[in-house]
Write a structure and sequence with these properties.
Layout (H helix, E strand, L loop, with lengths): L48 H27 L5 H16 L9 H23 L4 H25 L4 H27 L8 H20 L1 H11 L7
Helix pairs in contact: 1-2, 2-3, 3-4, 4-5, 5-6
Length: about 240
């Protein structure tokens, strides 16, 4: 049996098409209206989300503050505890802080997370007396922040064009790996005959081009939709 709307092959027991959600109708089959099991409404367990996040925040304060307090008590200076506290704080901002909000806006939190991670790298560079932050870490973090923020913004606000956005994002990531290798060579004087970034650029660029062509060629997009049961694919 096939769906009368999109033509996807259906099993005998299906009453709704898994792709286009059209109700299945066949004159030789009688659809049972009454459910086998009684419909009993179940109420989901309610919990205080902000209370839970408050407890998690308190737990995160322990690895943030305790290492600093202990090291200041023992050595009167911060040597290693800054790395522990800073890394824990970055993890909290990236993964825990958005959970405070019922509907966290990724357009805000994605660049914020990259900004906090960049500041942590600056701290590591200054604390170790290095000179690699400005010529290496900063351009990499800035470029990745721009790429990730642009992809997130387009996917979040645009209802259509997701395949174009993801395809362009993959190509941009491939170019970013080339930038990464060039900065490694120029900053740390690491040279090699073969550029490893050419492999990642090729793979990511081909994947991005395939997605863009899928968005352009309508029959190909519809075929993929029916084969993989992924529902409607936006242009």
């Amino acid at each position: 049996m096939y769906c009368v709307n999109c033509g996807v092959k259906l099993s005998d027991g299906q009453t709704i098409c898994p792709v286009c959600h059209t109700k299945v109708y066949h004159p030789d089959f009688k659809i049972q209206e009454n459910s086998t099991y009684p419909k009993i409404p179940f109420k989901s367990e309610e919990f205080n989300r902000k209370g839970l996040m408050f407890v998690i925040t308190i737990l995160f304060l322990i690895p943030v503050l305790l290492p600093v307090i202990l090291e200041l008590t023992w050595h009167d200076e911060i040597v290693w505890s800054g790395y522990v506290s800073g890394g824990t704080f970055v993890f909290y901002v990236c993964f825990i802080l958005p959970c405070w909000f019922k509907r966290a806006n990724p357009v805000i939190f994605v660049p914020t997370s990259f900004a906090v991670a960049t500041l942590f790298l600056l701290y590591v560079c200054l604390h170790t007396g290095g000179t690699w932050f400005m010529p290496f870490a900063f351009p990499l973090c800035l470029s990745m922040t721009v790429i990730a923020s642009a992809i997130t913004t387009l996917l979040y606000y645009l209802k259509r064009g997701k395949l174009y956005t993801v395809g362009g994002g993959l190509i941009s990531l491939g170019l970013w790996t080339v930038l990464l290798e060039l900065l490694i060579r120029s900053t740390f004087n690491v040279y090699s005959v073969v550029m490893w970034s050419s492999a990642s650029l090729t793979v990511l660029a081909l994947a991005g081009i395939v997605l863009i062509l899928t968005a352009i060629i309508k029959p190909l997009k519809e075929s993929l939709r029916k084969v993989f049961f992924i529902g409607k694919i936006d242009d």
